[in-house]
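Human: Here is a favour to ask of a fellow structure person. Comparing notes only helps if you start from a blank page. I am asking you to supply a protein in sequence and C-alpha cell form. Write it directly below this note and I will take it from there.

Assistant:
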Amino acid sequence: MILTDELCDQLCEAAKQKSREMGFDISFAVFDENGLPRVYRRYGEALALSITLVPGKAYTSAVTQCKTRDVAEASKEGGSLMAIQTNDPRITLVAGGYPLFVNGKIAGGIGVGGGSEEQDCTVAEYVLSVFEEATK
C-alpha cells in the first residue's frame, strides 16, 4: 500500500502547514486509487462548504486520474467528458483536486479547499511535491 497511515499523516501536516503559512484554514482529503477515503481533516475555521467539496475533489482526481480543474474543462459542452458529473454525483468540478502517481501508476488523489481557487491549488501543488519526494 502506497498511501500508508504515516504518509497520509505527512501529507496532512504539509497541507496544514502550507495553508497556515499562507494565512487561511483548509479542509484536506486523501483518497486511494479506487476513490475510497484514506483521511479527511478540517483545520481551524475552514469554510463549511469545504466539508462537501474537498472529499469530492480527492475522489474525482483519484478516479479520473486528472486535476479537477482539467476535468471541469473537459466536462464543458462538447468536451470529451461532457456531463460526467450527471453519471456520478461524487464527481466535483472545482479546482483543488490533484491525482497522485508513483512510477506512472495512479496511487490516489488529494483535495484541498478553504481558500480561493489559486490558494487551494498552491497548497495542493505543495502537497504533491511532498508526496513525490516521499515516494522516490
